[in-house]
Design goal:
166 residues, alpha/beta, 3-stranded mixed β-sheet, 8 helices
């Protein structure tokens, strides 16, 4: 099984997308994260749902978790207001690495190894458009789709014929 066969359409946002809309997208589709594209539409980063949650939590609570117990429900219910007026790019960690990218001809094991090595819930599958603008030179990177960890596990379990014991 190759990466091109495992890749599926997946929700993406760009660095200038509204952060609150991105959070809603994650919540409504129960996504482990979003693939963030740059201005050219090429993969720039992965925004894990856990990072989005971290943006919601006040810094003083992260630094001293015991303070979370003293914040009343009225204030806790308004945590998402922290996303108002922010862009997705504002929610990315300053240490954000480029997203893991698989070649369309990578095997399922190569994708699994990449996912494990970088501890990412998803891997982008891209190919270079070698023709480029006007048919000359190196072109843009074209996103073929995304492979999520859960989809990869599902496919590997199916191929292996592992029986469902539940």
């Amino acid at each position: 099984m190759l990466a091109r066969d495992l890749a599926v359409a997946y929700e993406t946002v760009n660095v200038d997308s509204d952060a609150l809309a991105a959070a809603r997208l994650m919540a409504e589709h129960r996504l482990p994260g979003l693939l963030v594209l740059d201005e050219r539409g090429e993969p720039k980063a992965i925004l894990p749902a856990s990072q989005m949650v971290k943006v919601l939590v006040p810094t003083y609570v992260i630094e001293d978790p015991t303070l979370a117990a003293v914040v009343d429900e009225k204030h806790a219910d308004r945590l998402c207001e922290a996303l108002a007026g922010r862009r997705v790019g504002d929610c990315l960690s300053s240490r954000t690495e480029p997203p893991p990218i698989a070649d369309p001809d990578d095997t399922a094991l190569e994708v699994a190894a990449l996912m494990a090595r970088v501890r990412s819930p998803l891997v982008a599958v891209t190919e270079k458009d070698t023709a480029g603008p006007g048919g000359r030179g190196q072109g843009r990177t074209r996103l073929l789709g995304v492979i999520t960890a859960s989809h990869l596990l599902h496919e590997l379990l199916g191929v292996a014929g592992v029986p469902d014991t539940a």
